[in-house]
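ARCHIVE CARD
CATEGORY: sequence design from structure
SOURCE FIELD: tokenized fold
FIELD CONTENT:
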């Protein structure tokens, strides 16, 4: 009777996943600790960035939280931890645009818009000044408003603004200059 010897198990070649590099090691990305530290250090500035684009506190908080969630989900794609903040800023700007689109659609569907309510702790003078600035900012073109918010509120350089918005440096300068001129005229007319 013939003896049947067990066949050796076939050798399989392990293929690295997309998250792993060619050597089979985990690719570098933004760590949870780095993202947590970025959250602690920059939450308020990102909230302020969203506030200047949206002017609604609840929506601003939602936008910033959603931005952190999205960056956390995609942290392995952000290979350079130094770019985490830039990625967060870009995500906040994009989510703010989406929120504005939804708001515009909602206003079109409503028969009459809801009045804006000022919070109790804000002073009357500050509220009037803020309302005048918001009204003037709303009168700007979208790109002018985005450039001014990123340049002067977020303290970004012109090159950083260009990279964040995906436009040329010359366009940043032109939008900024025209936006400041339009704001100056609007604020003087309000005074």
């Amino acid at each position: 009777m013939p003896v049947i010897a067990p066949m050796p198990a076939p050798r399989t070649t392990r293929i690295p996943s997309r998250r792993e590099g060619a050597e089979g090691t985990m690719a570098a990305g933004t760590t949870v600790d780095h993202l947590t530290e970025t959250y602690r250090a920059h939450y308020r500035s990102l909230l302020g960035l969203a506030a200047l684009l949206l002017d609604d506190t609840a929506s601003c908080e939602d936008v910033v939280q959603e931005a952190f969630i999205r960056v956390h989900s995609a942290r392995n794609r952000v290979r350079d931890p130094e770019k985490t903040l830039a990625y967060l800023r870009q995500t906040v700007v994009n989510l703010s645009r989406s929120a504005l689109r939804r708001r515009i659609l909602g206003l079109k569907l409503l028969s009459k818009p809801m009045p804006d309510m000022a919070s109790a702790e804000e002073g009357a003078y500050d509220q009037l000044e803020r309302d005048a600035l918001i009204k003037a900012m709303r009168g700007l073109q979208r790109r002018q408003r985005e450039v001014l918010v990123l340049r002067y509120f977020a303290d970004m350089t012109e090159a950083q603004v260009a990279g964040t918005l995906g436009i040329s440096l010359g366009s940043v300068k032109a939008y900024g200059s025209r936006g400041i001129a339009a704001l100056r005229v609007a604020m003087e007319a309000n005074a």
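CARD ANNOTATION: The radius of gyration is 24 Å. Confidence is low (pLDDT under 50) at residues 1-7, 12-27.
SHELF: design records, drawer C
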